[in-house]
Amino acid sequence: MRIVTRADHPELQDEAAAVFRERWPEFIFHDEVPKKYLGRVEEHFGHFDVMALGDDGAVLAGGWGVPLAWDGTVADLPSGYDDALVRAVEGHEAGREATTLSFMAAAVGAAHDKRGLATAVLGELTRRAYGKGLSHVIAPLRPTGKHRYPTVPMAEYATWTRADGLSIDPWIRTHQRMGARVLGPAPSSMVIEGTVAEWESWTGMVFPVTDDYVVPDALNTVHIDVERDRGVYVEENLWVRHA
C-alpha cells in the first residue's frame, strides 16, 4: 500500500469519488455549503487530500482535511462540518494563519474493511498537519452507529460505552484508539434542505403529512413541512481532538 495525494493522480478522481459515495446516504450530497466551497478546498488544500492505493494501483481508501484557525477552546470550535469548511477557506483567503487541521471525511472501500486503512489515512493526514507546523488535529465525526438512535442527543450518545470503556460506536472507537478525546457535539454540522419530492427521491420514502421523520442513515430526524413543500435536516456531529 502507498499513500498519495489525489491532486497528483487526477486519473483516479472518479474511482476515489466512488469509494466515498458508497459510504454516505444520498441526501448528504445535497448540502449547499460544500457545493460553494469544495472547489476552493481542492485549490488551496490539496496537500491534505490523500488516497491509499493497493499494489495494483486501485483506490482502497481516502481522506481529506482542511487547515483552519482555532484557539484550542471548545467555545471557539466551528459549529460543525459546514462551518469548518467556511472558516478554512475564507480564513485562508483572508491571510489568517491556520493552527489546526480538521479531518473532514475518510472512507474505506467496502471490500477493504477491517484492514486498518482508515487509521493509516488519518495518520498520514496527522503527520502532514504537524509537518506543516499546525498545533492541533480535530474532527467533526459522523458516528457510524448513531443513525440507529436518531432521537438521542449526540451529547448522550457520546457517553455510551462498552465494558472496555471505549465508545459503542465503531467510528468513535477508531479515533479513540488513535488517542482522540471527545470535546462535545457539533450542533449544526450540516444543514440540508429540499422540497418534499426531493426528500422522497433521496430517501425512497413517502412523506404524506407534516412531521419529524426517522430517515434511513440520518443521525437526527428530518422535519417535513408539507404545506410549505420543504424538508429540513440539521445533522449533529461530534467534535473530537486528537492527542
TrEMBL record:
Source organism of this protein record: Paractinoplanes deccanensis
Superkingdom per UniProt: Bacteria
Protein name: N-acetyltransferase domain-containing protein
